[in-house]
Write a structure and sequence with these properties.
The protein has 487 residues and is an alpha/beta fold. The protein is 39% helix and 19% strand. Helix 13 links the parallel strand 13 and strand 14.
Length: 487
């Protein structure tokens, strides 16, 4: 058993912008069930404070001249202790965790997450005298990237693991910010935190963590290549011996079609007929023609380049002429939102676009759709294809990252060997997307074959149990690497 400080900038159900929240809200619970002693550290955003109960102040201090206190409570529906970094000047504001209500990054993001890292370091070194010191500090994405860098010079320190959820987000700021944050001057070097004259938070994790992992085996290999490495592939190659991939799991209590409270009709692989009631309900709710036979394709996504919106828009003129309905839920870059809404307004019987963030509707789309579209340009793991598999909603995905690790194309060979569970687009182009979509539509007409695929999809085990075990092994490796590290 190890003591683990798990650091994240979001965690479901308290605060979520994407898959990191799903992971941070479920992996700690799985680790705790396997006997690890884990504390989750999160900023005390207003959305979080509204949902937690019985908070107790454990410590208070100052970082960058700001009052900061550490509060203790529990991650809802679990025994996992949750520590909240309460700094009203940094976190108590309307808007999201990283951006204001207009979608602009907070001007002081560097300061906000540097102080988040500073208090994590003080916990790690037992400077706050909490009576609990971690053996392992598990950092996630750039917001906690400075932690391994700031801990590295200490002889007596916990081991560090840095998990890459998305290499495209690096936490880059000016050299002046580096100075303002009073980071140790020797960190300003290209082999350390400097990245082409900028301060890179993520490099703190990539350069200094005892171990690094990506959220799928394929993404762990892809990021060694220039096309997926966002300029960090060289560094990652250098640290390749310390880099591995662990596929994310899913919270099977939150995402379970047999018990999901947001569905019109619950179902499982033996009661697949019930699934169509969710389709009818979705069609009604969104004002689409109600027709059980017309294939319904769903998509739930941040609307950013990563998610393949360019090839969807490139294929849209043909998509609206196909015998399908397409339902898209998401928000993100305005130019994508505007173009998609325009297409939807012109083809209201074919395309329905809901701009916004809606947790309940996301469950209803997963259950009510026949297929799920995810043509990402890159995808570190991807959770929606896993939710889709569990909901018998066959995913149509690009063969990248975690999508390649979890979706097996329904070609003849894979169908024969009963491994097929979805459809794979083998190239990032509108034509390739349309070809795969047409193949899926063809197979949809073969009811018995389709049902077989659905059952195969629903049988897949993407629970956290296995992956949590991999993390426990990785923690042990991080500890032994730390012991061999030369300070
Ligand atoms: P990423 O983290 O890159 O956004 P993932 O597939 O790992 O991609 O996770 C995305 C998570 O966010 C899923 O749980 C998905 O359902 C959810 N999500 C994304 N956009 C929305 C939205 N507009 N409304 C509700 N949930 C959303
Ligand atoms: C990132 C990735 C996504 C992954 C998620 C959780 O946001 O884009 O692929 O599933 O993190 O690890």
């Amino acid at each position: 058993m190890s003591k683990i400080l798990y650091i994240s900038s979001e965690a479901f159900p308290l605060i979520k912008t994407g898959g990191l929240a799903d992971v941070a809200g479920s992996l700690p619970i799985a680790l705790s069930k396997q006997g690890e002693e884990i504390h989750l550290l999160l900023p005390a955003y207003p959305q979080v404070m509204q949902q937690v109960e019985n908070t107790q102040q454990l410590a208070s201090s100052h970082y960058y001249g700001l009052d900061v206190s550490l509060l203790e409570t529990h991650l809802p529906n679990s025994d996992v202790p949750l520590w909240l970094v309460n700094c009203p000047a940094a976190f108590e504001r309307p808007g999201g965790p990283y951006m204001d209500s207009d979608g602009q990054p907070w001007h002081d993001n560097a300061l906000r997450f540097a102080l988040f890292c500073q208090i994590a370091v003080d916990i790690a070194l037992d400077r706050l005298k909490l009576g609990w010191q971690p053996d392992i500090v598990h950092c996630n994405d750039w917001q906690s990237g400075l932690v391994p860098a700031l801990l590295a010079s200490f002889k007596q320190r916990p081991a560090t693991l840095f998990t890459i959820h998305n290499l495209a987000y690096q936490g880059l700021f000016s050299q002046q910010t580096f100075t303002d944050l009073e980071l140790p001057g020797n960190l300003w070097q290209p082999s350390r935190l400097e990245f082409y004259d900028q301060l890179s938070f993520i490099k703190g994790g990539l350069v200094y963590a005892d171990r690094i992992n990506a959220v799928s085996p394929t993404y762990a290999r892809e990021i060694l290549l220039p096309e997926f490495g966002y300029g960090l592939n060289g560094l990652l190659q250098h640290r390749q011996a310390r880099l591995s991939g662990i596929l994310n799991g899913i919270d099977q209590t939150v995402w379970n079609p047999a018990t999901d409270p947001h569905l019109t009709a619950n179902y499982d692989s033996h009661k697949l007929a019930q699934k169509s009631k969710n389709k009818t309900a979705l069609q009604k709710q969104l004002g689409l023609p109600v027709d059980a036979r017309i294939p319904l394709v769903g998509m739930i996504s941040r609307m950013v380049e990563q998610k393949g919106l360019d090839i969807i828009l490139g294929a849209m003129a043909e998509i609206v002429n196909l015998p399908i309905q397409l339902v898209m839920l998401g928000n993100g870059e305005t130019h994508y939102e505007i173009q998609l809404v325009k297409w939807a307004n012109n083809h209201p019987d074919k395309l329905n676009v809901v701009i916004g963030y809606n947790e309940i509707l996301s469950h209803q789309i997963e259950a009510g759709s026949d297929m799920f579209l995810m043509p990402s340009t890159f995808e570190p793991c991807g959770l929606n294809q896993l939710y889709s598999l569990r909901y018998g909603t066959l995913p149509i995905v690009r063969n990248v990252g975690g999508l390649a690790d979890t979706v097996v194309d329904a070609n003849d060979l894979n169908r024969k060997s009963k491994t097929a569970n979805g459809f794979v687009i083998t190239e990032q182009s509108a034509e390739a997307l349309l070809t795969t979509l047409r193949t899926a539509l063809g197979l949809y007409q073969e009811t018995a074959a389709w049902k077989k695929l659905q059952r195969a999809a629903m049988k897949g085990d993407f629970s956290w149990q296995r992956s949590a075990g991999h993390y426990i092994k990785l923690y042990q490796q991080a500890l032994s690497d730390r012991d061999q590290a030369v300070v």
